[in-house]
Design goal:
The protein has 17 helices and 15 strands. The protein is an alpha/beta fold. It is found in: Cytoplasm.
């Protein structure tokens, strides 16, 4: 039996023992990015946090027994507008932004489908795209209309919120508050201000697909229906964990719950709902107008992905995180120290309990990292860090990467080191100092080892 994992559940507002519906097949869905532009550093948070969840579940239940689906939203108003602006199709636009996103994820040490899927076996990591699931969305919508939970009006299909007595059970917002929020601009075809769009007509030039029955004109889906369709297709009508950023609880997740439960007549869509807190930059909300909007790529241009990953995991996932240069510097120093300690050691067979236990307590990464700091056995440190997706590089691989990133001319460095060695052998201290100065001007520090060898490293 797997050790007990406890997770905080937004649905119950409590931490409780996690019990999979089928321990032989644990199923997780996370709302992924809307790929209309390069992802920002806030978007990296759910990706890294739920990557850790996936790793932990794989550790507990076995690699073949966990399925993780993280969708890609590749159709929405912003995507349509940008593709039209550039005169390309939405597929052309989103293929481009999706491949940038994949590169970002790789550099952040996030497990990718190609790392975990095994040919001929059930996929373990899926990345479904909304536009590949329009057929499933249409059948869900038709099911909702047939069940009396949705209606057609002016070429739209709307979800009939008052038809669901416990609508709002995830976000736990009072009905009158939700109504007041929705009342700002009520479309004339809505029966209730809370009703939300499942399907809408496309304007000329916008992407469109054949509409659900009862609507002749082609149209396109509303936002929420895609996740009900993709989770159903890949994980089933009910699954274990649904994850995303805290901003998605209302309306996105509330509406996903309404769609899936009312279509399938199930008591829950997912048993556990996990939400990450928001990231802000140097104490302020990140926004284009404040000029502190940073893309993942911009951060990765200045810092190794592993430093970014560690800086992200230092804060518990449900807390807000303040993204600072200081935090990155600290993470960088920590990794230097740890790599110095582990050298080229192989990881222990099992991660130490001291590191695993806090992770089993609702992914308490802050305390797992504090435990890692206390370890001095290289094999345990490597295994414990591995569970968090850290310290995966070899010492020499890391040095090579740091030299590459620094753009240093290795041949010139080696020439100067040889000059210095010759000068020292000839007791020509002035020439030896000169060579050392030339090396530091190149950004390189030299170290004379006890065994007579000289090694060098890049000055940070
Ligand atoms: P989007 O591409 O805006 O749909 O967002 C993709 C994911 O990133 C969602 O799970 C959001 O909740 C999450 N997200 C967006 N902004 C932030 C932020 N500043 N901090 C943490 N998570 C965020
Ligand atoms: Zn979603």
């Amino acid at each position: 039996m797997a050790p007990m994992l406890r997770l905080y559940n937004t649905l119950t507002r409590e931490k409780a023992a996690f019990t999979p519906i089928d321990p032989g097949h644990v199923r997780v869905y996370a709302c992924g990015p809307t790929v209309y532009d390069a992802a920002h550093i806030g978007n990296a948070r759910p990706i890294i946090v739920f990557d850790l969840l996936f790793r932990l579940l794989r550790h507990l239940y076995g690699e073949a027994h966990v399925t993780y689906a993280r969708n890609v939203t590749d159709v929405d108003d912003k995507i349509n507008a940008r593709a039209a602006e550039r005169g390309i199709t939405i597929r052309e636009l989103t293929d481009g932004t999706l491949s940038l996103f994949h590169q970002d994820m790789r550099d952040l040490g996030v497990l990718m489908p190609e790392d975990v899927n095994v040919a001929g076996e059930r996929p373990r990591f899926l990345e479904p795209r909304a536009t590949d699931h329009i057929g499933e969305m249409v059948s869900l919508i038709e099911g909702l209309v047939a069940a009396g939970h949705a209606y057609v009006a002016e070429d739209h299909v709307l979800f009939d919120v008052p038809s669901m007595p416990d609508y709002g059970s995830l976000s736990k917002r009072p009905l009158d508050e939700m109504e007041a929020g929705a009342r700002v601009e009520v479309a004339p075809y809505k029966r209730s201000p809370l009703d939300f769009v499942l399907w809408k007509p496309s304007k000329p030039g916008e992407p469109s697909w054949p509409s659900p029955s009862g609507i002749a004109a082609p149209g396109r889906p509303g936002w929420h229906i895609e996740c009900s369709a993709m989770s159903w297709k890949h994980l089933g009508k009910t699954f274990d964990i649904h994850a995303g950023g805290i901003d998605l609880i209302f309306p996105h997740h509330e509406n996903e719950v309404a769609q899936s439960r009312c279509c399938f007549g199930t008591p829950v869509m997912a048993n556990v709902w996990m939400h990450n807190g928001f990231l802000q930059v140097e104490g302020e909300k990140m926004s284009k107008s404040l000029g502190n909007f940073v893309t993942i790529r911009e951060v990765l241009n200045d810092w190794p992905g592993e430093v970014v990953r560690l800086a992200m995991l230092k804060t518990h996932y449900r807390q807000p995180i303040d993204w600072t240069v200081r935090g990155l510097e600290e993470a960088s120093r920590t990794l230097d120290r740890w790599y110095g300690l582990v050298g080229d050691a192989s990881p222990a067979h099992e991660p130490p309990a001291a590191v695993l236990d806090p992770l089993l307590d609702d992914l308490n990464t802050a305390s797992a990292l504090a435990e890692l700091h206390r370890l001095d056995d290289p094999a345990s440190l490597k295994a414990g860090a591995g569970l968090l997706g850290l310290l995966g590089q070899t010492k020499s691989g890391r040095e090579r990467a740091s030299v590459q990133a620094s753009g240093i001319d290795v041949a010139a460095v080696e020439r100067l080191i040889e000059e210095r060695r010759a000068a020292r052998a000839a007791k020509n201290w002035a020439a030896s100092d000169q060579a050392r100065d030339a090396l530091s001007a190149l950004g390189v520090a030299v170290k004379d080892n006890k065994d007579g060898t000289t090694t060098w490293s890049v000055i940070k």
